[in-house]
UniProtKB/TrEMBL annotation:
It comes from Rhizopogon vesiculosus. This is Uncharacterized protein. Signal peptide: none annotated. The keyword ATP-binding does not apply. PANTHER family: F-BOX AND WD REPEAT DOMAIN CONTAINING 7 (PTHR19848:SF8), WD40 REPEAT PROTEIN (PTHR19848). Keywords: Repeat, WD repeat. WD repeats lie at residues 18-59, 113-148.
Length: 261
């Protein structure tokens, strides 16, 4: 299957710059009000910014590097994953934990939530807000009850480093790993489908996932060995059309966001 043609190069200057972090920014989460964002960094801080003027509204100093963030409870809580650098050794034990904080006060509501033994960069919450999924380089996904913050059942054993997790509109959980893309029934703890995805193209990692709003297609992004977005028909798990190209070669695509319109 041939790749689609790349669009003409364009350049746009940033509308606003948010300055303050001293190390790599690993996560950005938007509040439901559309007026604030939260950022997490390896500088061991979580910051909340006002979009209107780029002002830093809050800064929480934590004890470990921040891997992922998620906004819950209509913008009242922030979930973060925190831990140490694995130094590119994803098979050794490096404990990462989840923390839940109140947005207004920064007070810890729940945590540390233990269970992962390597870096955690993947978080998502079910549409009803009742289940949070965390995916780790330790090859597992943990499902958490967002009311009690207890684990819901056993870990999902994915067999490869988990890079991304995303719930579908129907409640299935899509998991992107180093080796394949998996679809899980989170209630039954069953994996009805899995396919290689970008791993079939130059042994690329599957870096990111998102579902179309009707759930009929799953969009995925590859790493620098396959820096394109591919669309998969969820009824057949076959690629739909040509991939979407445009990113430079050897450039990882770390995130896909669909326009809600």
């Amino acid at each position: 299957m041939k790749d689609s043609k790349q669009p003409a190069d364009t350049h746009r200057d940033p509308v606003k710059t948010f300055e303050g972090h001293k190390d790599e920014i690993t996560s950005i989460a938007t509040f439901p009000d559309g007026k604030r964002i939260a950022t997490g960094s390896w500088d061991e801080t979580i910051r909340i910014w006002r979009l209107a003027d780029g002002r830093e509204m809050k800064k929480w100093v934590v004890k470990k590097k921040v891997g992922a963030l998620l906004i819950l409870r209509d913008g009242k809580q922030v979930v973060s994953t925190e831990g140490d650098d694995a130094d590119d050794d994803f098979d050794r034990t490096v404990y990462w934990r989840l923390w839940v904080r109140d947005v207004e006060t920064g007070r810890v509501i729940a945590g540390p939530l233990d269970g992962h033994t390597n870096m955690v960069y993947a978080l998502d919450v079910s549409l009803d807000g009742g289940i949070l999924a965390s995916g780790s380089y330790d090859c597992t996904v943990i499902l958490w009850d967002t009311t009690t913050w207890q684990r819901k059942g056993q870990l999902l054993q994915c067999g490869a480093h988990v890079i991304w997790v995303r719930f579908s509109p129907t409640g299935q959980l899509g998991v992107a790993t180093k080796e394949d893309i998996q679809i899980w029934d989170s209630d039954q703890r069953e994996r009805p489908a899995r396919f290689k995805g970008h791993a079939n193209f130059n042994k690329s990692w599957n870096r990111s996932l998102t579902w179309t709003r009707d759930g009929t297609h799953l969009l995925s992004a590859g790493d620098g060995h396959d820096p394109v977005v591919r669309s998969w028909d969820t009824s057949t798990l076959k690629q739909a059309g040509d991939p979407w190209a445009g990113h430079d070669d050897k450039t990882e695509i770390l995130h896909i966001i669909l326009n809600p319109a």
